[in-house]
């Protein structure tokens, strides 16, 4: 039984003047502990799909199942911006989700502080977000997301605003952290290399309305390596060229 089933999802946005179909007939399965990526042209509905999986919006058609159930699950959502509250300390930001979900107690508080330490953020609890670098803020946001022990993490281009070196370091950190905690994750990205380095499966979306144009399976030899090390393997470049060619063909074909 798959951990996550996306079944025949279609979604249309309606306004008084028009209707726009963002997604049509999206379906795939994700196993527990698996990391998958969604790539494709801008406007192909990737973020809309994340919002549907998160339960933020309801699809026009289809359904999302967690272990064959439509029951609500604890979702962790991490975006391009860290959305740390600037007037709150890192400790207050870290514990916010636990307070909202009424999970805050001595045990969960200590576990949250342990997360900060594991993510290399020792002794910053009393600092404010503006006192931290972009990479440190994203690590703090990751700790806040993981503190509530989500069933699945939804990552919407969380590294795209960072400089390249910070981005590579954070990729490794997120990859290792999710493996340690056996978390299931779905990443939306425009970066083909990032998708290959972090995923076991990559779903390439067509332009609007978004459909799954092609699925790529990342070789096991790459899946077992950290993102930084995976980028150095010959299989990495081969897969990159294949995805690049398909994406290029897709964009040229759909703009004709």
What does this structure look like?
By secondary structure, the protein is α/β, with parallel strands linked by helices. It has 9 helices and 9 strands. The strands form 2 sheets. It has a 6-stranded mixed sheet with strand order 5-6-7-3-8-9, sandwiched between helices. Helix 2 (90-100) packs parallel to helix 4 and helix 6 crosses helix 9 (234-255). It is globular, with a radius of gyration of 19 Å. The N and C termini lie far apart (42 Å). The model has no long low-confidence stretch (mean pLDDT 90). Keywords: ATP-binding, Nucleotide-binding, Transport. This is ABC transporter ATP-binding protein. It comes from Bacillus changyiensis.
Give a brief rundown of this model.
This is ABC transporter ATP-binding protein. With 256 residues, the protein is of the alpha/beta class. It is 40% helix and 23% strand.
What distinguishing features does this structure have?
256 residues, alpha/beta, 6-stranded mixed beta sheet, 3-stranded antiparallel beta sheet, 9 helices, 9 strands, 40% helix, globular, ATP binding, nucleotide-binding, ABC_transporter_ATP-bind, P-loop_NTPase
Question: Secondary-structure blueprint of this entry?
Answer:
Layout: E1 4-14, E2 19-30, E3 35-39, H1 46-54, E4 61-66, E5 75-78, H2 90-100, H3 106-118, H4 134-147, E6 152-156, H5 164-181, E7 184-188, H6 192-198, E8 201-205, E9 212-217, H7 220-223, H8 227-230, H9 234-255
Parallel strand pairs: 3-7, 3-8, 5-6, 6-7
Antiparallel strand pairs: 1-2, 1-4, 8-9
Helix pairs in contact: 2-3, 2-4, 3-4, 4-5, 6-9
Domain ABC transporter: 4-232
GO molecular function: ATP binding
Protein name: ABC transporter ATP-binding protein
